[in-house]
Each structure stands twice: as structure tokens, then as C-alpha cells.
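Project channel, design review

CF: Before we commit to the Actinomadura violacea constructs, I'd like one complete example in the thread so the newer folks can see what an input/output pair looks like. Taking Proline dehydrogenase.
RD: sounds good, go ahead.
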Amino acid sequence: MDAGLAALLGAAVGSLTTLGAAVVNGRTQARTQHVQWRRQHRRDAYAAYLSALHDRDIAMDAILDAAQADPPDLPGLDEKVQHFIACARDVHRAAEVVILEGPPSVVEATDRIAEESSGLSEVMQRMVKAAHAADGTEREQHSATASARERRLYQAVSEFRVQARSVLGNAD
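CF: and here is what came back for Proline dehydrogenase:
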């Protein structure tokens, strides 16, 4: 084989090798960028959800405090209920994004929060109804039940945080 042909073959092999390496590196980089993009979207969804939960929980605490006042300020209580409803809608919207972003472990944790929130909301509704009826006979029972439900909700939110950190790669 003459030197010119050998040089041409060498250049062709070198070019193909370089092209192959560029394709592999490009795909790897694209995959890495996609993983980072996905992680950031999940992180934003989880943060928005936790923020909405926080705002809703503050609104709920205000209702629980107002419902236990003696005598309760009914117009103020009703205003707090309306604020709570708006916050609950924000939580629902934020939860929908979390559910879309997945994965199943985080969706399950979100479902548990919804279940515990619902239980606490039921107690809150009974307390508001009792305040409007000027019925304080079950105040202590409602208060104890609300307290237990708040603990369960806090545990569910804590589990959500653990699952979210795990998904985001921050489990340390």
C-alpha cells in the first residue's frame, strides 16, 4: 500500500472516530441536561406545593383559634374560612403539578397529605358549625381531635419532604 492511500485511510478512520466520540458526547450531554431540567421542574413543583401547604395551614390555624374563642367573632371567622378556601384551592393546583411530575413515591405522599388534610378540615368544619350555633359542648373534644389530626398531617408532610428529597437526589 502506498503512503498516500495509508494516509487517506488513517484520516478517514480518525474522522470517523472523532465523529463517533462527538455523537456519544452529545447524547450524554443532552441526557445530563434533560435530567437536570427534570430535576429542576420537580424541585420547583415540590417547593410550590410545600409553600401552598404552609399558607393553607396558617389559614387553618387561624380558623381553629377563632372557632375556639369565647365568644367567637363570627364575621371574622367566616372571613378566615373564605381565606382558607382560597388557600386550599392553591394547594390543590400545586398538588396537580406534583402529581404530573411524579414519581409514584411522591404521588403517594401527596395523596396521604390530602387524606390527612381532609380529616383535619372535617374537624375544622364541625368547629365552625358549632361556633355559629353557639354550641360549646364539644369544644374540648374538637380541640383534641384537631390536635391529633394536625400531628398526623405534619407527619404526612414530613414524609413528603423525605420522598421529595430522595427523588431530587438530596437524601443525605
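RD: helpful, thanks. Residues 41-168 form a domain with the de novo design (two linked rop proteins) fold (CATH 1.20.1440).
CF: The longest helix spans residues 3-68.
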